[in-house]
């Protein structure tokens, strides 16, 4: 390895490394160190009053009922919304891949449009849909004789309402990836199966699903990571209410950090979330290995 | 959730290009005029806009760059602007937020300006409200509008029980509540006397203040909720739930206007914004059947206190055009401007002179607020107050539903509050 080659390497990689270092590694390390201090509003005014508290923030966090409420809410969102989102996007992908459907381009656009729309604009529309008195959804319920529901104001309904919104907003993205996966399945497999007398359901179960396994695993991990970081939906729609029933881990982190300015505590929340996501991803990787064997 | 695909790659160019096109023309459209940046919150932010042209007409060399910030994001935005060294020159500051900005040393002491002012004098303000703006003898804001809580009640339902005037003491208050409840039970209706929503900390805190509790002790470094004064007030508060005088779990009462009109409850402690709401939302035949009254007191001998609320105008320490900013504060404090502001927003004027106008004198529902504003008390002036208030609210909710002994609950509340105040204790005692 000559010296000129390694310097050429540095010239090419250097700018990217500097940017990543400054805007990713430095903040992450700073936040990690911050999580061992009690950096708060007093420290914001005068840095010298920040104290090192060791694992104090983490200890307090594990005893904080609000944190566990946030964990519960986030898991609810993840375990109900995640699978729902994957099933819907797979179903839509299979439909759009079918030869029977006309205007595929149009449908793909329609289903993908919510993904690229900003959530704040979407929230305005969905607030109207969920409005307890004048909302579209309650109007539809009244047509079939059901009593109106205060979707965003009722502690039991607020989270399902957010799940519905999130699934509607995000399934298009996964759908496109599924369509790409479907296009990679050789047509000859389906033809062979048809000759052997397999029906549509059998073809789906024995060809489509197994061939899509790598795609599905990728989507599951990406969806899990994204859904663990639930923030924008409750922030825009409910602010974590009613009765903290839509308070997510990231929203708690935001409130502790920017509302109360307990930066040390807030950084601890961030790292606990990081551990959760890491464990979730490891678990899925393990399951995949076992499935492949 | 952020999903940035490669296709979004060039979208960032649009705002950059727009900024490049508009930038030079935006930053200096008015030649030599001094620009002062003013942040106002919520409805005040939307409505104060119509008062600005008159100010700019009087001072042609000043331009006011007004930004309306929604209340839900205001606190974060103000603190973040401090951290990012981009504070507005002058801003609306909720009274309970003053201690935080005092700790940060972010706002200017306005006493030197008041000393030479011909418009702003301490005597023109309600003393209780003025004093909320003073911490360590520095005057950190000029009251802009005031806010407190009074009793809203159904005159006919109270008269039915022999009360032609509102209850004056805690004992009378409890007595009339019991009678209203007893009548409802007799008639087999589900109806209550009071509405005490457990997602509001104000009523409970007011009862504590009325009974002489300071809420915190030892220079506001520890909770004093187990102290006798607060314990007694808390006991009184819980009786409303345990005797069935107030509905439990009132997040279900989503429409208080309908509730009051239907007689689901007869009394409610709330603020001035509800005068307009009650007029608009109660049916016409209800309009002469509700009234406002100053709050009862523990013994009924003197007037009971309520919260000193509202917003002030504060000047950022970082501001570079303090003289111009002071002119704006003075302008917004003029009695006639205060009155105009009341007429657009319904916010009660901070200036006592403005109350002498017929617009306010002729309003029967506002009178109780004027009387109450002479008897207001402040919550402890510590930066952690809002966090403490959340805890108080949380424990009030537990009490309204459960049967845990009061002493135990308050001891637990004190423990929680002591944790929140740990840093303050350390700063005051050990440094």
Given as residue ranges, the uncertain stretches of chain B (5+ residues, pLDDT < 50) are 1-30
Distance between the termini of chain A: 40 Å
Shape of chain B: globular
Q: Largest beta sheet of chain B: what is the strand line-up?
A: 2-1-3-14-6-15
> Under the CATH scheme, which architecture of chain A would be assigned?
Orthogonal Bundle
Overall number of domains of chain B: 2
Considering residues with a beta carbon less than 8 A from a beta carbon on another chain, report the largest interface and each chain's count. Answer: A-B, 32 and 27 residues
Task: Please state the CA-atom Rg of chain B, rounded to the nearest Å.
Answer: 24 Å
Average of the residue pLDDT scores of chain B: 89
Task: Indicate the CATH class of chain A.
Answer: Mainly Alpha
Rg of chain A, Cα atoms, Å = 24 Å
Structural class category of chain A: mainly alpha
Q: Which quaternary structure do these chains form?
A: heterodimer
What fold name stands as the CATH topology of chain A? MetI-like fold
Low-confidence stretches of chain A: none
Largest sheet of chain B: 6 strands, mixed
In a few lines, what is going on in this structure?
The complex is a heterodimer of chains A (293) and B (431). Chain A has 14 helices and no strands. Chain A is mainly alpha-helical and 293 residues long.
Protein described:
The complex is a heterodimer of chains A (293) and B (431). Chain A is an all-alpha fold and 293 residues long. Helices cover 75% and strands 0% of the residues of chain A. Chain A has 14 helices and no strands. The mean pLDDT of chain A is 90. Chain B has helices spanning 13-27, 42-47, 52-58, 71-83, 98-103, 111-116, 127-132, 155-160, 170-186, 202-210, 228-242, 256-261, 273-281, 322-333, 335-345, 358-361, 367-373, 385-401, 406-420, 422-430; strands at 34-41, 62-69, 90-94, 134-135, 138-139, 142-147, 150-154, 194-195, 216-217, 222-223, 267-270, 290-293, 306-307, 309-315, 348-349, 376-377. In chain B, the strands form 5 sheets. Chain B has a 6-stranded mixed beta sheet. A 4-stranded mixed beta sheet of chain B has the order 8-11-7-12. Chain B has a two-stranded antiparallel sheet with strand order 4-5. Chain B starts with 12 loop residues before the first helix and ends with a helix. The relative contact order of chain B is 0.16. The chains are: A mainly alpha (293), B alpha/beta (431).
């Amino acid at each position: 390895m000559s010296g000129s080659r390694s310097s050429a390497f540095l010239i090419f990689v250097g700018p990217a490394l500097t940017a990543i270092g400054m805007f990713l590694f430095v903040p992450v390390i700073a936040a990690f160190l911050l999580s061992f201090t009690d950096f708060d509003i007093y420290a914001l005014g005068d840095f010298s009053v920040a104290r090192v508290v060791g694992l104090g923030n983490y200890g307090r966090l594990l005893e904080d009922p609000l944190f566990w409420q946030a964990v519960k809410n986030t898991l609810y969102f993840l375990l109900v919304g995640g699978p729902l989102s994957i099933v819907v996007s797979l179903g839509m992908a299979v439909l759009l891949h079918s030869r029977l459907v006309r205007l595929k381009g149009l449908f793909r656009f329609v289903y993908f449009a919510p993904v690229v729309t900003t959530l704040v604009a979407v929230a305005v529309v969905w607030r109207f849909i969920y409005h307890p008195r004048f909302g579209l959804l309650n109007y539809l319920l009244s047509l079939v004789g059901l009593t109106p529901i205060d979707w965003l104001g009722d502690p039991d309904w607020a989270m399902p309402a957010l799940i519905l919104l999130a699934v509607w907003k995000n399934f298009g993205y996964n759908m496109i990836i599924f369509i790409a996966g479907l296009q990679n399945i050789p047509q000859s497999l389906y033809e062979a199966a048809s000759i052997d007398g397999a029906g549509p359901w059998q073809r789906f179960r024995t060809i489509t699903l197994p061939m899509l396994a790598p795609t599905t695993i990728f989507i599951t991990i990406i969806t899990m990571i994204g859904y663990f970081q639930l923030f924008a939906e409750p922030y825009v729609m409910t602010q974590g209410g009613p009765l903290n029933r839509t308070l997510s881990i990231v929203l708690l982190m935001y409130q502790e950090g920017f509302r109360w300015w307990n930066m040390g505590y807030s950084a601890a929340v961030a790292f606990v979330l990081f551990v959760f996501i890491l464990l979730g991803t490891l678990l899925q990787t393990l399951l995949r290995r076992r499935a492949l064997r | 959730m952020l999903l940035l695909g490669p296709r979004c790659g060039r979208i960032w160019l649009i705002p950059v290009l727009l900024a490049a096109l508009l930038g030079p023309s935006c930053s200096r459209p008015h030649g030599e005029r001094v620009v002062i940046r003013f942040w106002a919150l919520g409805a005040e932010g939307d409505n104060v806009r119509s008062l600005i042209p008159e100010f700019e007409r009087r001072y042609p060399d000043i331009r006011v760059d007004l930004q309306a910030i929604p209340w839900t994001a205001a606190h974060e935005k103000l603190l973040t602007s401090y951290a990012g060294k981009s504070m507005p020159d002058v801003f609306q500051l909720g009274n309970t937020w003053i201690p935080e900005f005092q700790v940060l040393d972010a706002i200017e002491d306005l006493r030197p300006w008041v000393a030479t002012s011909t418009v702003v004098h301490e005597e023109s303000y309600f003393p209780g409200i003025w004093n909320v703006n003073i911490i360590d003898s520095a005057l950190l804001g000029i009251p802009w509008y005031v806010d407190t809580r009074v009793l809203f009640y159904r005159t006919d339902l109270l008269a039915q029980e022999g009360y032609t005037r509102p209850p004056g003491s805690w004992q009378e208050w409890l007595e009339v509540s019991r009678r209203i409840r007893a009548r409802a039970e007799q008639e087999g209706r589900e109806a209550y006397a009071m509405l005490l929503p457990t997602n509001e900390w104000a009523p409970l805190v007011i009862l504590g203040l009325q009974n002489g509790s300071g809420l915190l002790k030892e220079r506001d470094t520890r909770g004093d909720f187990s102290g006798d004064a607060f314990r007694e007030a808390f006991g009184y508060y819980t009786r409303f739930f345990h005797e069935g005088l107030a509905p439990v779990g009132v997040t279900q009462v989503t429409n208080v206007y309908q509730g009051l009109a239907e007689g689901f409850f007869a009394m409610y402690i709330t603020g001035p914004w509800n005068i307009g709401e009650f007029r608009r939302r109660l049916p016409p035949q209800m309009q002469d059947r509700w009234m406002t009254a100053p709050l009862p007191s523990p013994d009924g001998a003197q007037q009971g206190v309520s919260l000193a609320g509202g917003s002030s105008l504060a000047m950022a320490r970082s501001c570079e055009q303090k003289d111009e900013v002071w002119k704006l504060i003075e302008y917004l404090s003029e009695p006639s401007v205060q009155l105009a502001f009341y007429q657009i927003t319904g916010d009660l004027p901070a200036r006592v002179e403005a109350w002498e106008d017929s617009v306010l004198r002729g309003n029967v529902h506002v009178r109780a607020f004027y009387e109450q504003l002479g008897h207001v008390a402040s919550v402890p002036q510590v930066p952690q107050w809002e966090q403490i208030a959340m805890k108080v609210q949380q424990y009030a909710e537990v009490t309204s539903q459960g049967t845990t002994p009061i002493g135990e609950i308050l001891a637990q509340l004190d423990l929680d509050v002591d944790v929140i105040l740990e840093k303050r204790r350390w700063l005051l005692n050990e440094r």
